Amino acid sequence: MTAFSGMTLEQLEQEHQCCNGDEAVLAGLHRELVDRKRRREAGGKTEKPRAAHLRQVISKELGGHDKPTMNSSSRQQVRPSELPAAAAKATAAWPRRDGSSVLPKFSPTDEQMAAVSAFQTGEDVKINAFAGSGKTSTLTLLAEAVAGSGLYVAFNRACVKDAAGRFGNNVQCRTVHGVAYRALQGHFRRDKMAGKLNPNIVLSHVPVEPFSSGGMKLTDSQMASVALATLRRFAQSRHSDVRDIRVPRYGLLSSMPAHLEKEITAAVHRVVEEMWQKMCDRTSSMPLGHDGYLKYWAMQRPTLGFDYILLDEAQDTNDVVLGVLEHQKCQVVYVGDRHQQIYEWRGAINALDKVRTSKECALTQSFRFGPQIAELANIVLRRLGERKAIRGNRSVSSDVGTATWPDAIIARSNGAVLQAVMACLDGGRTPYVEGGTQELKRLIRGVYELRDQGFSTVPEFFGFNSWAEVVEYSETEYGQELATFVRLVEAYGPGPLWHLLKRVSDQPEDADVTISTTHKAKGREWSAVRLEDDFVLTEEDEDGSPRELPAEEMRILYVALTRAKTHLQLGDQTSRFLGL
Questions:
Q1: What is the C-alpha to C-alpha distance for residues 60 and 64, in angstroms, rounded to an integer?
Q2: What is the reported pTM?
Q3: DSSP labels, 348-375
Q4: Per-residue DSSP letters for 7-60?
Q5: Which residues contact 398 (CB under 8 A, 6 or more apart)?
Q6: pLDDT, tens digit, for every residue of 190-217?
Q7: Cα(377)–Cα(391) distance, rounded to whole angstroms?
């Protein structure tokens, strides 16, 4: 076995990107890939194309040698005397805060070394890590550079699973909800904590009245859905009073006048107050749900009991978690990309902008893509007011232009995802939709509901009494995000679209291309990526002057175009917007 035996192929690719040419790491990766190739061949299988490509690339970087230049012992056991002179110099042992020393797993960049130095002061640290800059690898360096127990925490389970294979035994890796769940075990029943909340559960525990005023009508089920969304916002905030929370503006609610918003808000708050009371009551059968027990735990002002805490994806944390971290007595490191905050709509707070620390660092060297894609990212970053520039990986050949066929297609809206699915199937390609087709089917189901009963349980269609009203709404400024979906329904009908989705692959490995919204693609990467042309919906103001995208839309565009490693294809409107 090698030090990389337990890693997935994607993790091996990430290790390769972040090793900065360290020959010891390259040799270990090469040996692992050769071992996997031999095992597959022994079982009568051929080597996976991605694995073969990675092995060949590493072989060239090692000078074309077929055999690795180190044995299969762990990277932690490699000593400078076993490495080439340059690598040995770069991997000299580091002094720890307690006086001991440690040998890093790979040769760090100057920026990673600066982050380690900042961390070793014992002060709280912010690290703004641009796309593909090796933030998780940097966090492992931090954990190696100090003694003591640490907690790596993130919201995404996949991030935690990936991190768990990289840190040593001194660091526990958990999701935020996992930390809260463990703390409350024994206080609440398991079914109360893990039970799911939905409109029917709300209606069975709390009296909810339909709303009708000023031409706006919402059924009791729709009101329960709005109350659930409001409760979720409350649970993700530091507020202790639900009346401080603004009600989400679903569907037609996004354009309602102020007096109607005030009426609906008062009605929803009454429901939410009673919901929260019953959720916190240990004798009530109403579930807390994941957001609920996280909020309850945070309100107890817990002390976590670690020497340091590493918060990953800090740009997408929420205020309730930020409040917990801010009153901890241990050192806290906030790491993420402030320009990848794209979850404001569900209550995310950008900790990198909100938190004040005495130490702040940046990781600007991307290992994912080359200078050409980096320059596009910099165009967006400059428009967001960023003074630092992301640097492309000069060892990666990347281009912006026309790809023969991409590995992934990324869209801004669900409607554009559906449009891309149709195009792939028409072209004889089998698509896979990242995260599944449930979101698309949910929208189509909403069309049937509007046509059959005059209202829908789908939040995007709240307040509408017919499909015709949705069509009219999609032609306004407020309804632009629904425009592509509406056009497809009008052109083909909901039935054919539903049957079309049945031809989508359930597994990415069985598909020719992955199709995703930006939000679902976050944290992913592909060699060749095409962006659908729905990121820039309006190019000019009424007077003909160029219209700048809102900051959140710019960040969504930045996330989308930085998913590509070697090839990136843009639509005409996006290209013009970027000045290409």
A1: 4
A2: 0.76
A3: EE-HHHH---SEEEEE-B-SSS-HHHHH
A4: --HHHHHHHHHHSTT-HHHHHHHHHHHHHHHHHHHHTT-PPPHHHHHHHHHHHH
A5: 369, 370, 371, 372, 373, 392, 564, 565, 566, 567, 568
A6: 999 989 898 999 999 999 999 998 888 8
A7: 10
